[in-house]
Automatic annotation (TrEMBL), chain A:
<keyword id="KW-0472">Membrane</keyword>
<dbReference type="GO" id="GO:0055085">
    <property type="term" value="P:transmembrane transport"/>
</dbReference>
<feature type="transmembrane region" description="Helical">
    <location>
        <begin position="31"/>
        <end position="52"/>
    </location>
</feature>
<protein>
    <recommendedName>
        <fullName>ABC transmembrane type-1 domain-containing protein</fullName>
    </recommendedName>
</protein>
<keyword id="KW-0571">Peptide transport</keyword>
<keyword id="KW-1003">Cell membrane</keyword>
<keyword id="KW-0813">Transport</keyword>
<dbReference type="GO" id="GO:0005886">
    <property type="term" value="C:plasma membrane"/>
</dbReference>
<feature type="transmembrane region" description="Helical">
    <location>
        <begin position="275"/>
        <end position="295"/>
    </location>
</feature>
Automatic annotation (TrEMBL), chain B:
<dbReference type="Pfam" id="PF19300">
    <property type="entry name" value="BPD_transp_1_N"/>
</dbReference>
<feature type="domain" description="ABC transmembrane type-1">
    <location>
        <begin position="97"/>
        <end position="327"/>
    </location>
</feature>
<dbReference type="GO" id="GO:0005886">
    <property type="term" value="C:plasma membrane"/>
</dbReference>
<keyword id="KW-0812">Transmembrane</keyword>
<comment type="similarity">
    <text>Belongs to the binding-protein-dependent transport system permease family.</text>
</comment>
<keyword id="KW-0813">Transport</keyword>
<feature type="transmembrane region" description="Helical">
    <location>
        <begin position="7"/>
        <end position="32"/>
    </location>
</feature>
<dbReference type="InterPro" id="IPR000515">
    <property type="entry name" value="MetI-like"/>
</dbReference>
<dbReference type="GO" id="GO:0071916">
    <property type="term" value="F:dipeptide transmembrane transporter activity"/>
</dbReference>
Length: 330, 337
């Protein structure tokens, strides 16, 4: 809990926090903190699930058909008699792996391409022309609805995990391309960059020394949120049967499996994997949002709600009618 | 440049965009490993039919020639045949797209009704109760997969409460569909003056529209809110506040100025949902273009799958065009640049 500062509350930088580091920043914002905790838990689950004393996530036991959640089966069993708890814990192995690799693919290819296009933008000759044409191509790829394009890519490439990784990666390339290009265009106008250019820096040096380090945080924010979106896309593809195939534990596929049961009243086969999926997506987007806020000076120094509440509580007695919080003049 | 210049330019730009979409779909076709002809005709094709299609596609010719032939076929509205339905893909899609459009349009209308007022109120008072509510809503609904929300809604409103009809398509089997005019059962029934059928169609629409509305409201809410927050600091708002206008009237002014960004985000959502409502369609057996595409993909019906993606991309280009034209109308400054 923050100590009440000596100055009246405002949206301007609070001196108490001016030197705070990223950890404190996150710790003071429960939503961001929750994001890191959830993602940490999900990653841990993916790593240790096979080591835990759980029932097999793929070997069916037809004797325990659609058992409601109980002590023996914390999340119940599905129509095939599979232990849902074990399957929910094993699922991130597939979901996270696909999301991670496809996002890395998109971020590496899209990011590098975007940075190059940003450097080449407006240059005479072939490079300038390539910069224009590539942006138009990226526009066109973005005209395709994301899910439809991923679906058709899987159809075209053939079903299987590598195809899903590739499909989700390709669909997301334009996002990173656009982001890095905008970043590069901004960095290009900075004096340090102009100085480097005047000193004779080439494209490769400029990329490595100036563009990548300065754009990294923004790129990371997008990557974190992007992994969540990729998990959702993976689950969506599996939900309709175009993604990860049945016995492999995967959240989207599990939700689809339990669909008929939900209609007849057995909610557990679908609700638990959906909950895990929603929490995971939330976790990644909270991490993305935390990095984004940290990169934005106004957001970084904004008094968090918790600090605000502490301040208001400490000053309630002294507060007069005209010093209402939120009415601070800019 | 005259006022008409940018508008004309935007209209002309549609043509290369459409050509680009076609080029990308051609590349997708070329991505198919091996020989596409047997895949297009399906498992029941004869050897002669495959040989004939191979010649028609010009697979033995140079790539530019193939692309040209592809363009000529598209210009004739020929997206190939679906081997599953044995109909031309364009005919199949023409029957199903109105169902998808009906769903997506109503879903977005609901999303607007939720997102804009919430975003406006949250943006106007960044520390108020509504802002907290909006924060929570954005976090909650923003992370939940739409197909999962659909399942929860079915469980609560159909299984538990019995208020909603079974999630089995656009009309109950016992109800006769109205004469086809627009392809939307709701509108067609209303045109025919058949209240009971319209009500039945509306009942079927309720849950899928609620799902789309609840999830799509999140980006609309966020966009409205950030735009309104930015406008809060602008001179005209401060002036309006300073001269003592009622908060409601200031809100009206702010809303008017936030409209262009709301329209933009709705356009983007519309484009995404044309392809993304696929999951909702599957959950509710909607029988629209999305479900058609899923069955095409699962059964390696390449013509149908590619046809779907080309048509939805073209539709979303058209939506973006419409959005830009509406933005021109809403924001006079855009017309001058």
């Amino acid at each position: 809990m923050a100590e009440p500062g000596p100055l009246p509350p405002s949206r301007d930088p609070a001196p108490a926090e001016a030197g705070a580091d990223f950890l404190t920043f996150v710790r003071r914002r429960p939503v961001y903190l929750a994001g890191y905790l959830i993602v940490g838990a999900v990653v841990a689950m993916a790593v240790v699930a096979p080591l835990l004393p759980l029932r097999s996530p793929v070997d069916a036991n037809a004797g325990v058909y659609l058992v409601a959640p109980s002590l023996a089966y914390p999340m119940g069993t599905d129509t095939a008699g599979l232990d849902i708890f074990s399957r929910v814990l094993h699922a991130p192995r597939v979901d996270l792996a696909i999301a991670l690799f496809s996002t890395l693919l998109a971020a590496l290819v899209g990011g590098l391409l975007g940075a190059l296009l940003g450097l080449w933008d407006g240059r005479p000759g072939l490079k300038g022309l390539v910069a224009i044409l590539a942006m138009r191509l990226s526009d066109i790829v973005q005209a395709f609805p994301v899910f439809a394009l991923a679906l058709v890519l899987v159809a075209v490439l053939g079903q299987g995990v590598p195809s899903i990784v590739l499909a989700i990666g390709i669909v997301n390339i334009p996002v990173y391309l656009r982001l890095m290009r905008t970043q590069t265009l901004t960095i290009r106008t900075q004096p340090y960059f102009e100085a480097a250019t005047l000193a004779g820096a080439g494209d490769a040096y400029a990329l490595a020394r100036h563009v990548v380090p300065n754009a990294l945080a923004v790129l990371l924010a997008q990557v974190a949120g992007g992994i969540g979106a990729a998990v959702l896309l993976t689950a969506g593809l599996s939900f309709i049967g175009a993604g990860v195939r049945a016995p492999t534990p995967e959240w989207g596929g599990m939700i689809a499996n339990g669909f008929q049961n939900v209609i007849t009243g057995q909610w557990w086969p679908s609700v638990f994997p959906g909950l895990a999926l929603a929490l995971t997506i939330f976790g990644f987007s909270a991490i993305g949002a935390s990095i984004e806020a940290w990169c934005n000076p106004r957001e970084r120094t904004r008094t968090s709600r918790r600090e605000w509440a502490a301040f208001v509580a400490a000053h309630r007695s002294r507060r007069s009618a005209d010093a209402r919080p939120g009415a601070a003049t800019p | 440049m005259t006022v008409l210049g940018p508008i004309l330019f935007r209209l002309i730009a549609f043509v290369p965009q459409l050509l680009g979409v076609i080029l990308v779909s051609f590349l997708l076709l070329k991505l198919i490993p091996g020989d596409p002809a047997p895949m297009m005709l399906g498992p029941l094709a004869t050897t002669e039919a495959i040989a004939k299609l191979r010649a028609e596609l010009g697979l033995d010719q140079a790539l530019p020639v193939q692309l040209w032939q592809y363009l000529v076929r598209l210009a004739h509205g020929d997206l190939g045949r679906s081997w599953q339905t044995t109909n031309p893909v364009l005919t199949d899609l023409a029957i199903r797209i109105p169902a998808t459009l009906e769903l997506v349009t109503l879903g977005l209308a609901l999303a607007l009704a939720i997102g804009v007022p919430l975003g406006l109120a949250a943006g106007r008072n960044a520390h108020g109760r509504v802002a907290r509510l909006a924060d929570g809503y954005g976090l909650g609904a923003g992370a939940m997969p739409d197909f999962w929300i659909a399942l929860l809604l079915i469980y609560v409103f159909y299984t538990l409460l019995g208020w909603a009809p079974p999630p089995l398509g656009r009309l109950d089997f016992a109800v006769l569909p109205p004469d086809r005019i627009t392809g939307s059962y709701l509108i067609d029934a209303l045109i025919a003056g058949d209240g009971a059928t319209a009500l039945a169609a509306l009942g079927q629409l309720a849950l899928p529209v609620a799902t789309l509305g609840l999830t799509s409201a999140v980006p609309i809410l966020k966009m409205t809110r950030t735009t309104v927050e930015r406008l809060q600091d602008s001179d005209f708002v401060r002036f309006a506040d300073a001269k003592g206008l009622s908060p409601a009237r200031v809100s009206a002014h702010v809303l008017r100025n936030a409209l262009p960004s709301v329209v933009t985000v709705v356009g983007t959502l519309y484009g995404t949902l044309l392809g993304g409502a696929v999951l909702i369609e599957v959950v509710f057996s909607w029988g629209g273009a999305g479900q058609y595409a899923v069955s095409a993909v699962l059964n390696a019906d390449i013509n149908a799958a590619l046809g779907f993606v080309v048509v939805t991309a073209a539709l979303s280009l058209a939506v973006h065009l419409a959005v830009d034209l509406i933005s021109f109308a809403l924001d006079p400054r855009l017309r001058l640049t």
